[in-house]
Amino acid sequence: MLKEINFDGIVGPSHNYAGLSLGNIASASHKGDPSYPRAAALQGLAKMRGNLARLGVQGFLLPLPRPNGALQSALAYDGSEAAALRAAPWSASSMWTANAATVSPAPDTADGKCHLTPANLITMLHRAQEWQDTKAQLDIAFGDKEHFAVHDAVPPTFGDEGAANHGRFCEGHGSAGVELFVYGKPGGRFPARQHEQASRLVARLHGLDTTKCVFIEQNPATIEAGAFHNDVVSVVNERVLFTHQEAFTDQQGAYEAIRTKFPALEVVEVPSSAVSMAEAIRTYLFNAQLVTLPDGSMNLIVPEECRESPTVWTYCEEMMASNGPIREVVPVDVRQSMANGGGPACLRLRVVCDPATVDPRFLLDETKANQMERVIAKAWPEQIDPADIGSEALAKSVIAARLALLEMLDLQKLA
Ligand code: SUG
Asked: Domain range spanning residue 136?
């Protein structure tokens, strides 16, 4: 039976604030702050536990090896570099698994397999180092070749940021869908990370019927305002598009393009008069997990920051009181991730598949969550100060922490 499974990225032991992402306001404004990797990973785990209870199934992907010796060599690392170059090989950015890959479930593809393409993430140095190691994990987690096809990333210079710019409209997760690809056009103050040609390439690679695909442009003004991925301004689940009024370059045209291919479309549009673009980006209202519960109703899992914003929370309360499809808004604390520009939706990759076809080592249950919690509480650094980045001692503890988790999960193969 096909189900939507959220694979959350476990926050790695080197989680830190290095201000590496141009155009990501949270990352820039927290640059140089001390970080709390243990608290960060426990916040992520608590979110997973909540969703496991709510949805009955939850997956995860593991932190990638850091510091990345191969990148350090490629950068001719000798300790004298500027802070950003020193920090890139240490980044725990793979926690944001919405950027791990683009996923097209079996009902949408020509060969009836679920296709996954790791995102090349070429726009940012610290993220461009992710995809090969991400693919190594996808190859194991989705190694059942009868049901999955895992591709290589699309080649440069087509920038691809994965599922963060992709959505899927369908009547139910197990039925055939219409896939939405949102791209940015370059030329603005900040990089447009998702290129149109990358999206089109992924669609072809996945064997999608292009008459069932929609390609639309993200409003460049939102990228200028700090929405470096489309999932900062809209989210899709089944027939519902939850979106800010200014998310797309041609908002009405976008709705029409989707409706032509998916007539059941239900738009929940948040007007700028209720929530300004700046407030949407500050609180990450749209970087939410819009999920269907087993009883068919929908919940929106938002960052705590939404509850603390009078305008955003007023909107949410009104939405809950209305007759709309989103019946409950559930705040979660992912502050450590938020400070680097990653909300609840950044932290998860959605894969529609039969859970029985996934390598069970990547699926969470209560026992495993308890074990993981113990490993994290014991081995993850409590605090990282920017000056620690690059130190031998920190490298040792970060490597040992990851290894302890791999051993606990019987995934030493990824060491
Ligand atoms: O790529 N932040 C990530 C946040 C990714 C959020 N993902 C989605 N919207 N789906 C990024 O900008 C900050 C790292 C630093 O500055 O240390 C960072 O990479």
From this structure: 3-414
CATH of the domain at 60: 3.75.10.20
- Please list every protein residue whose CB sits less than 6 Å from any atom of ligand 1: 17-21, 24, 27, 91, 93, 96, 98-99, 127, 164, 228-229, 231-232, 340-342, 346
Q: Are 139 and 150 in contact (CB under 8 A)?
A: yes
How far is CA 149 from each of CA 3, 102, 187, 353, rounded to the nearest angstrom? 17, 12, 35, 12
Chain centroid offset of residue 109 CA: 22
Contacts of 159 (CB under 8 A, 6+ apart): 120, 121, 122, 123, 191, 192, 193, 194, 195, 198
Phi, psi for 374 (deg, rounded to 5): -65, -45
Rounded CA-CA distance 351/108 in Å is: 13
pLDDT band at 80 (very low <50, low <70, confident <90, very high): confident
**CA 188 centroid distance within chain:** 23
| pLDDT tens column, 17-38 | 999 999 999 999 999 999 999 9
Q: How many domains does the chain have?
A: 1
Q: Ligand 1: distance of its center to the CA of 188 in Å?
A: 19
Neighbours of 72 (CB within 10 A): 18
